[in-house]
Prior knowledge:
By secondary structure, this protein is mostly helical. It is built from 12 helices and no strands. It is globular.
Amino acid sequence: MITLYDLLLGGVLPGVMAMLTLSGVWKLTHNGASSWRTAVVVGFLVGMWALDAQAIGVLSAIAKSLRIQEAKDFLALVVILGVFPDAIAVYGKQGRVTAWLLRVALCVFLPWRLLTGSVYLPNATAVPNPFDTGAWSTFKAICWLGGIAAMLTSLWGLFLAARDHAPRVRSILTAMVALAAAITLALSGSITYGQLMGVLVATLTGCAIASIYWKLERGPDAAAGPILMAFGGVLILAHFFAELKMLYALPLVLAFTLAGGWFFPGKRWSNPLRCAVCLILIAVVVILAGIDFAEAQNNPYAGYSGM
Length: 307
């Protein structure tokens, strides 16, 4: 059960930290991209560590990101790594090429690292297991990892392509879609991953408020790397480890793409249609997840086939 303390640590704290960080970096550098990237990383890490600190203390929570104990602990690393491609891309043609190589590498690394050691990608052992453990074949692993990597890379490119179009609208919509994702994860039975997505919601909200206040002409595209590593990472964990339905995951990804990515800039109908489609998608997903949750509460043995 989520307590008021959880909301303060996983919601208010990262939002305030993101808002203060973006404002501080902007006042020091007047660089919108750096302000967004720094704020997203600081907000997400502070919120993630604050939630863990309730049980194990602040230092131990931070140490978990260095001495990995479970898959979600890798999120801190990939969110930080997500900063570098876009930061390098400003250094001419060679920088742009290097940046895209790093983006592709990160989009492959994310699902591989989160799933390695799980039932899907078990660590190699000297003695083969004669039973069907559910482990992927090499072909299936390539299809899954390649498909996820291709989707993340495409999403990254669409975010970057939207750089000069409606940054305020995109800032608000990405936070709203992340909120819908957090609610969906919680309704689907994963409070832990729902809280992590909630940290991203708070972070994006804090960034949006500060960005609008300072009239920055940059939006989520400026921090596409860390945002997508966090959003994609939590959805991957929720789908493979908490059985988040693909019926929910794919519309959320599509809504996130429309919220923060390229969508016919310059057309008068672009923003109204973007908003309408995003809101419809997230409303449908949350309603369906709510129906499933209500059915599960009324019949906890639904779907149980017996012996």
